[in-house]
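Researcher: Please predict.
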Amino acid sequence: MSDNRRDFIKKTAALAAALSVSGGGMAEAAPLIAEETEKLENSAKPSQIKIAGQITPEPDDDTFAFYNQMGINQAVLWTNAKKSSGEYYGSRKKLFADHGINVYGFGNNDVHNQDKLVLNLPGRDEKIEEYKAHLRSLGKAGIGYTTYAHMGNGIWDSDVRGLARGGADARDFNVNAPNYGRWDDNRYHAPLSHGRQYTRDEIWANFKYFIQAVVRTAEENNVHIGIHPDDPPIPELAGVPRLFTSFEGYKHALDLANNSPSVGLCLCVGSWMEGGDKLGKDSVGMIDYFGKKKRLYKIHFRNIYSPLPHFVESFVDDGYTDMYTIMQALKRVDFDGVIIPDHIPKMAGGPTVGTAYTIGYMKALLNRVNAEV
Protein backbone atom coordinates (compact mmCIF):
# COMPACT_ATOMS: atom_id res chain seq x y z
CA MET A 1 0.00 0.00 0.00
CA SER A 2 1.37 3.44 -0.92
CA ASP A 3 2.06 6.12 1.68
CA ASN A 4 -0.55 8.33 -0.01
CA ARG A 5 -3.24 5.67 0.34
CA ARG A 6 -2.30 5.02 3.98
CA ASP A 7 -2.53 8.74 4.64
CA PHE A 8 -5.96 8.87 2.98
CA ILE A 9 -7.26 5.98 5.10
CA LYS A 10 -5.93 7.56 8.30
CA LYS A 11 -7.53 10.92 7.50
CA THR A 12 -10.94 9.51 6.62
CA ALA A 13 -10.91 7.22 9.65
CA ALA A 14 -10.06 10.14 11.92
CA LEU A 15 -12.79 12.22 10.30
CA ALA A 16 -15.37 9.48 10.79
CA ALA A 17 -14.38 9.10 14.44
CA ALA A 18 -14.65 12.83 15.03
CA LEU A 19 -18.09 12.98 13.42
CA SER A 20 -19.25 10.01 15.47
CA VAL A 21 -18.30 11.77 18.70
CA SER A 22 -19.95 15.01 17.59
CA GLY A 23 -23.09 13.32 16.28
CA GLY A 24 -22.36 14.17 12.64
CA GLY A 25 -23.08 11.83 9.77
CA MET A 26 -21.97 10.99 6.27
CA ALA A 27 -23.68 14.07 4.81
CA GLU A 28 -21.30 16.25 6.78
CA ALA A 29 -18.34 14.01 5.97
CA ALA A 30 -18.93 13.66 2.23
CA PRO A 31 -17.38 16.96 1.06
CA LEU A 32 -14.23 16.43 3.10
CA ILE A 33 -13.87 12.81 2.03
CA ALA A 34 -14.37 13.88 -1.60
CA GLU A 35 -11.59 16.43 -1.21
CA GLU A 36 -9.20 13.81 0.18
CA THR A 37 -10.19 11.40 -2.60
CA GLU A 38 -9.41 14.03 -5.24
CA LYS A 39 -6.00 14.65 -3.67
CA LEU A 40 -5.26 10.93 -3.74
CA GLU A 41 -6.38 10.56 -7.36
CA ASN A 42 -4.27 13.56 -8.44
CA SER A 43 -1.20 12.20 -6.68
CA ALA A 44 -1.58 8.91 -8.56
CA LYS A 45 -1.78 10.49 -12.01
CA PRO A 46 1.30 10.33 -14.23
CA SER A 47 3.01 13.71 -14.11
CA GLN A 48 2.17 16.07 -16.97
CA ILE A 49 5.21 18.25 -16.24
CA LYS A 50 7.29 18.72 -19.38
CA ILE A 51 10.93 19.83 -19.52
CA ALA A 52 11.64 22.15 -22.44
CA GLY A 53 14.74 23.64 -23.94
CA GLN A 54 15.01 27.34 -24.70
CA ILE A 55 16.37 26.89 -28.20
CA THR A 56 17.41 29.12 -31.08
CA PRO A 57 14.74 29.26 -33.80
CA GLU A 58 17.52 28.69 -36.35
CA PRO A 59 18.99 25.39 -35.08
CA ASP A 60 21.52 23.22 -36.87
CA ASP A 61 21.71 19.43 -36.85
CA ASP A 62 23.98 19.42 -33.78
CA THR A 63 21.41 21.43 -31.84
CA PHE A 64 18.68 18.94 -32.62
CA ALA A 65 20.99 16.02 -31.80
CA PHE A 66 21.88 17.63 -28.45
CA TYR A 67 18.24 17.91 -27.33
CA ASN A 68 17.17 14.60 -28.87
CA GLN A 69 19.96 12.82 -27.01
CA MET A 70 18.75 14.31 -23.71
CA GLY A 71 15.20 13.19 -24.47
CA ILE A 72 13.81 16.74 -24.64
CA ASN A 73 10.74 16.98 -26.89
CA GLN A 74 9.50 20.49 -26.01
CA ALA A 75 10.95 23.86 -27.00
CA VAL A 76 10.47 27.54 -26.29
CA LEU A 77 11.74 29.90 -29.01
CA TRP A 78 12.33 33.66 -29.25
CA THR A 79 12.64 36.02 -32.21
CA ASN A 80 12.05 39.71 -32.99
CA ALA A 81 9.72 41.89 -35.04
CA LYS A 82 11.69 41.37 -38.26
CA LYS A 83 10.74 37.68 -38.34
CA SER A 84 7.47 37.74 -36.44
CA SER A 85 4.75 36.31 -38.69
CA GLY A 86 2.41 33.36 -38.89
CA GLU A 87 4.46 31.96 -41.77
CA TYR A 88 7.72 32.11 -39.83
CA TYR A 89 6.23 30.67 -36.64
CA GLY A 90 4.59 27.91 -38.66
CA SER A 91 7.85 27.08 -40.45
CA ARG A 92 9.64 26.75 -37.10
CA LYS A 93 6.90 24.55 -35.70
CA LYS A 94 7.19 22.21 -38.69
CA LEU A 95 11.00 22.18 -38.62
CA PHE A 96 11.08 21.25 -34.93
CA ALA A 97 8.28 18.71 -35.32
CA ASP A 98 10.29 17.02 -38.08
CA HIS A 99 12.97 16.48 -35.42
CA GLY A 100 10.59 15.20 -32.75
CA ILE A 101 10.24 18.46 -30.79
CA ASN A 102 7.03 20.40 -30.15
CA VAL A 103 7.23 24.20 -30.09
CA TYR A 104 5.35 24.97 -26.86
CA GLY A 105 5.84 28.72 -26.92
CA PHE A 106 7.28 31.56 -28.96
CA GLY A 107 8.35 34.97 -27.67
CA ASN A 108 8.99 38.23 -29.50
CA ASN A 109 11.61 40.50 -27.90
CA ASP A 110 10.16 43.58 -29.57
CA VAL A 111 6.84 43.32 -27.71
CA HIS A 112 8.37 42.24 -24.38
CA ASN A 113 9.82 44.57 -21.71
CA GLN A 114 8.79 47.56 -23.79
CA ASP A 115 8.94 50.98 -22.16
CA LYS A 116 6.38 52.32 -24.65
CA LEU A 117 3.82 49.93 -23.15
CA VAL A 118 4.86 50.25 -19.51
CA LEU A 119 5.31 54.04 -19.43
CA ASN A 120 2.76 55.17 -22.06
CA LEU A 121 5.41 56.66 -24.31
CA PRO A 122 4.74 57.80 -27.90
CA GLY A 123 4.01 54.79 -30.08
CA ARG A 124 2.17 52.80 -27.39
CA ASP A 125 -0.89 52.03 -29.50
CA GLU A 126 1.27 50.97 -32.44
CA LYS A 127 3.17 48.63 -30.10
CA ILE A 128 -0.13 47.16 -28.88
CA GLU A 129 -1.15 46.47 -32.48
CA GLU A 130 2.23 44.80 -32.97
CA TYR A 131 1.55 42.62 -29.94
CA LYS A 132 -1.88 41.65 -31.24
CA ALA A 133 -0.33 40.74 -34.59
CA HIS A 134 2.13 38.53 -32.67
CA LEU A 135 -0.79 36.76 -30.96
CA ARG A 136 -2.61 36.24 -34.26
CA SER A 137 0.57 34.84 -35.83
CA LEU A 138 0.92 32.37 -32.96
CA GLY A 139 -2.68 31.31 -33.42
CA LYS A 140 -2.19 30.84 -37.15
CA ALA A 141 0.82 28.61 -36.46
CA GLY A 142 -0.97 26.61 -33.75
CA ILE A 143 1.39 27.71 -30.99
CA GLY A 144 -0.47 28.33 -27.76
CA TYR A 145 1.88 30.22 -25.46
CA THR A 146 3.98 33.40 -25.20
CA THR A 147 5.77 35.16 -22.32
CA TYR A 148 5.27 38.84 -21.47
CA ALA A 149 7.23 41.04 -19.01
CA HIS A 150 6.06 44.50 -17.92
CA MET A 151 9.38 46.07 -16.90
CA GLY A 152 9.83 49.67 -18.04
CA ASN A 153 13.60 49.77 -17.65
CA GLY A 154 14.72 46.20 -18.10
CA ILE A 155 16.48 43.52 -16.06
CA TRP A 156 19.07 44.92 -13.63
CA ASP A 157 22.65 43.72 -13.04
CA SER A 158 25.68 44.71 -11.01
CA ASP A 159 28.17 43.08 -13.40
CA VAL A 160 30.32 41.24 -10.86
CA ARG A 161 31.21 37.85 -12.30
CA GLY A 162 32.94 34.64 -11.20
CA LEU A 163 30.85 34.34 -8.02
CA ALA A 164 29.20 30.97 -8.64
CA ARG A 165 30.60 27.62 -7.56
CA GLY A 166 34.09 26.97 -8.89
CA GLY A 167 34.43 30.55 -10.12
CA ALA A 168 31.73 30.21 -12.78
CA ASP A 169 30.38 33.45 -14.21
CA ALA A 170 26.84 34.20 -13.08
CA ARG A 171 24.67 37.28 -12.92
CA ASP A 172 24.54 39.22 -9.66
CA PHE A 173 22.64 42.26 -8.39
CA ASN A 174 23.57 44.33 -5.35
CA VAL A 175 21.35 47.23 -4.30
CA ASN A 176 24.36 48.86 -2.62
CA ALA A 177 26.69 48.66 -5.62
CA PRO A 178 26.76 50.27 -9.07
CA ASN A 179 24.04 48.65 -11.17
CA TYR A 180 22.10 49.21 -14.38
CA GLY A 181 19.07 47.97 -16.29
CA ARG A 182 19.25 46.36 -19.72
CA TRP A 183 16.99 45.09 -22.48
CA ASP A 184 18.27 44.33 -25.96
CA ASP A 185 20.67 47.17 -26.80
CA ASN A 186 19.23 49.61 -24.26
CA ARG A 187 20.89 50.54 -20.96
CA TYR A 188 19.13 52.26 -18.06
CA HIS A 189 20.67 54.04 -15.08
CA ALA A 190 19.65 55.70 -11.82
CA PRO A 191 18.45 58.11 -10.63
CA LEU A 192 15.76 58.45 -13.33
CA SER A 193 15.97 56.10 -16.30
CA HIS A 194 13.32 58.04 -18.27
CA GLY A 195 13.81 61.57 -17.03
CA ARG A 196 11.05 61.67 -14.41
CA GLN A 197 9.45 59.86 -11.51
CA TYR A 198 6.45 57.67 -12.38
CA THR A 199 3.71 56.77 -9.92
CA ARG A 200 2.50 53.26 -9.20
CA ASP A 201 -1.01 54.26 -10.23
CA GLU A 202 0.33 55.30 -13.65
CA ILE A 203 2.04 51.98 -14.21
CA TRP A 204 -1.07 50.05 -13.15
CA ALA A 205 -3.22 52.16 -15.47
CA ASN A 206 -0.81 51.44 -18.32
CA PHE A 207 -0.88 47.71 -17.61
CA LYS A 208 -4.69 47.75 -17.52
CA TYR A 209 -4.79 49.60 -20.86
CA PHE A 210 -2.43 47.07 -22.43
CA ILE A 211 -3.88 43.83 -21.09
CA GLN A 212 -7.50 44.78 -21.77
CA ALA A 213 -6.53 45.75 -25.32
CA VAL A 214 -4.94 42.37 -26.08
CA VAL A 215 -6.78 39.78 -23.98
CA ARG A 216 -9.62 39.17 -26.45
CA THR A 217 -7.11 38.62 -29.26
CA ALA A 218 -5.35 36.05 -27.08
CA GLU A 219 -8.63 34.27 -26.38
CA GLU A 220 -9.70 34.28 -30.03
CA ASN A 221 -6.38 32.73 -31.07
CA ASN A 222 -6.10 30.18 -28.23
CA VAL A 223 -2.89 31.73 -26.93
CA HIS A 224 -1.90 31.89 -23.26
CA ILE A 225 0.07 34.92 -22.05
CA GLY A 226 2.39 34.16 -19.13
CA ILE A 227 3.47 37.27 -17.18
CA HIS A 228 7.07 37.10 -15.95
CA PRO A 229 8.02 38.51 -12.53
CA ASP A 230 10.02 41.71 -12.36
CA ASP A 231 13.72 40.95 -12.10
CA PRO A 232 14.83 41.94 -9.55
CA PRO A 233 11.54 42.14 -7.62
CA ILE A 234 12.17 45.59 -6.15
CA PRO A 235 9.17 47.95 -5.81
CA GLU A 236 10.90 50.70 -7.81
CA LEU A 237 14.07 51.17 -9.86
CA ALA A 238 15.32 54.46 -11.34
CA GLY A 239 11.98 56.19 -10.96
CA VAL A 240 9.87 53.38 -12.45
CA PRO A 241 7.60 51.32 -10.13
CA ARG A 242 7.53 47.58 -10.76
CA LEU A 243 4.24 45.73 -10.42
CA PHE A 244 5.08 42.03 -10.51
CA THR A 245 6.96 41.98 -7.25
CA SER A 246 4.30 40.50 -4.98
CA PHE A 247 1.58 37.90 -4.72
CA GLU A 248 -1.03 40.65 -4.40
CA GLY A 249 0.31 42.34 -7.54
CA TYR A 250 -0.28 39.20 -9.57
CA LYS A 251 -3.78 38.77 -8.16
CA HIS A 252 -4.62 42.35 -9.11
CA ALA A 253 -3.17 41.92 -12.60
CA LEU A 254 -5.33 38.85 -13.29
CA ASP A 255 -8.37 40.74 -12.05
CA LEU A 256 -7.57 43.53 -14.53
CA ALA A 257 -7.43 40.88 -17.26
CA ASN A 258 -11.03 40.00 -16.30
CA ASN A 259 -9.74 36.68 -14.97
CA SER A 260 -9.36 35.46 -18.53
CA PRO A 261 -8.06 31.87 -18.77
CA SER A 262 -5.68 33.22 -21.44
CA VAL A 263 -3.70 35.32 -18.92
CA GLY A 264 -1.58 33.77 -16.19
CA LEU A 265 1.99 33.35 -15.01
CA CYS A 266 5.37 32.54 -16.37
CA LEU A 267 6.77 31.98 -12.89
CA CYS A 268 10.53 32.41 -12.79
CA VAL A 269 11.17 30.84 -9.42
CA GLY A 270 14.69 32.28 -9.42
CA SER A 271 13.40 35.84 -9.80
CA TRP A 272 10.86 35.12 -7.07
CA MET A 273 13.57 33.76 -4.74
CA GLU A 274 15.41 37.05 -5.14
CA GLY A 275 12.69 38.70 -3.04
CA GLY A 276 13.16 36.34 -0.10
CA ASP A 277 10.23 36.52 2.33
CA LYS A 278 9.01 39.96 1.24
CA LEU A 279 6.71 39.06 -1.68
CA GLY A 280 3.68 37.68 0.17
CA LYS A 281 4.23 34.04 -0.82
CA ASP A 282 7.35 32.06 -1.61
CA SER A 283 7.74 30.11 -4.86
CA VAL A 284 6.00 27.04 -3.48
CA GLY A 285 3.12 29.19 -2.23
CA MET A 286 2.80 30.82 -5.64
CA ILE A 287 2.70 27.41 -7.33
CA ASP A 288 0.11 26.11 -4.88
CA TYR A 289 -2.16 29.14 -5.31
CA PHE A 290 -1.95 29.85 -9.04
CA GLY A 291 -1.36 26.23 -10.04
CA LYS A 292 -4.63 25.15 -8.49
CA LYS A 293 -6.33 27.88 -10.52
CA LYS A 294 -4.62 26.59 -13.70
CA ARG A 295 -2.93 29.93 -14.27
CA LEU A 296 0.65 28.63 -14.41
CA TYR A 297 1.87 28.11 -17.98
CA LYS A 298 5.66 28.05 -17.77
CA ILE A 299 8.28 27.77 -15.02
CA HIS A 300 11.82 29.15 -15.24
CA PHE A 301 13.62 26.58 -13.11
CA ARG A 302 16.64 28.23 -11.52
CA ASN A 303 18.21 28.99 -8.16
CA ILE A 304 20.16 31.73 -6.35
CA TYR A 305 22.56 31.79 -3.41
CA SER A 306 20.76 34.34 -1.23
CA PRO A 307 17.98 36.91 -1.59
CA LEU A 308 18.23 40.69 -1.78
CA PRO A 309 19.89 43.03 -0.98
CA HIS A 310 22.55 41.04 -2.89
CA PHE A 311 21.82 37.93 -4.91
CA VAL A 312 24.01 35.80 -7.15
CA GLU A 313 22.53 33.29 -9.57
CA SER A 314 23.67 29.76 -8.77
CA PHE A 315 23.75 26.31 -10.25
CA VAL A 316 20.38 24.64 -9.90
CA ASP A 317 21.63 22.33 -7.11
CA ASP A 318 23.65 24.95 -5.24
CA GLY A 319 21.31 27.73 -4.12
CA TYR A 320 19.36 28.45 -0.97
CA THR A 321 16.21 26.65 -2.23
CA ASP A 322 15.86 22.88 -2.42
CA MET A 323 14.54 22.59 -5.97
CA TYR A 324 12.96 19.26 -5.11
CA THR A 325 10.31 21.22 -3.18
CA ILE A 326 9.53 23.17 -6.36
CA MET A 327 9.09 19.98 -8.37
CA GLN A 328 6.92 18.50 -5.60
CA ALA A 329 4.68 21.57 -5.65
CA LEU A 330 4.30 21.37 -9.44
CA LYS A 331 3.28 17.72 -9.17
CA ARG A 332 0.89 18.54 -6.33
CA VAL A 333 -1.08 21.02 -8.48
CA ASP A 334 -0.98 18.75 -11.54
CA PHE A 335 1.02 21.32 -13.52
CA ASP A 336 0.86 20.49 -17.23
CA GLY A 337 3.00 23.26 -18.72
CA VAL A 338 6.75 23.37 -19.30
CA ILE A 339 9.73 23.98 -17.08
CA ILE A 340 12.91 25.33 -18.64
CA PRO A 341 16.51 25.80 -17.46
CA ASP A 342 17.26 29.50 -17.16
CA HIS A 343 20.16 31.90 -16.37
CA ILE A 344 22.66 29.07 -16.11
CA PRO A 345 26.14 29.97 -14.77
CA LYS A 346 28.78 29.61 -17.46
CA MET A 347 30.61 26.31 -17.06
CA ALA A 348 33.97 25.38 -18.53
CA GLY A 349 33.64 23.54 -21.81
CA GLY A 350 31.15 25.75 -23.62
CA PRO A 351 27.50 26.84 -23.34
CA THR A 352 25.91 23.42 -23.84
CA VAL A 353 27.68 21.95 -20.78
CA GLY A 354 25.68 24.00 -18.29
CA THR A 355 22.46 23.31 -20.16
CA ALA A 356 23.08 19.55 -20.11
CA TYR A 357 24.02 19.65 -16.42
CA THR A 358 20.86 21.57 -15.51
CA ILE A 359 18.49 19.48 -17.60
CA GLY A 360 20.01 16.29 -16.20
CA TYR A 361 19.34 17.55 -12.67
CA MET A 362 15.79 18.58 -13.58
CA LYS A 363 15.08 15.18 -15.11
CA ALA A 364 16.36 13.43 -11.98
CA LEU A 365 14.07 15.53 -9.76
CA LEU A 366 11.10 14.86 -12.01
CA ASN A 367 11.82 11.12 -12.06
CA ARG A 368 12.01 11.15 -8.26
CA VAL A 369 8.66 12.92 -7.93
CA ASN A 370 7.03 10.51 -10.35
CA ALA A 371 8.55 7.48 -8.59
CA GLU A 372 7.05 8.56 -5.29
CA VAL A 373 3.47 8.31 -6.59
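Model: The mean pLDDT is 91.
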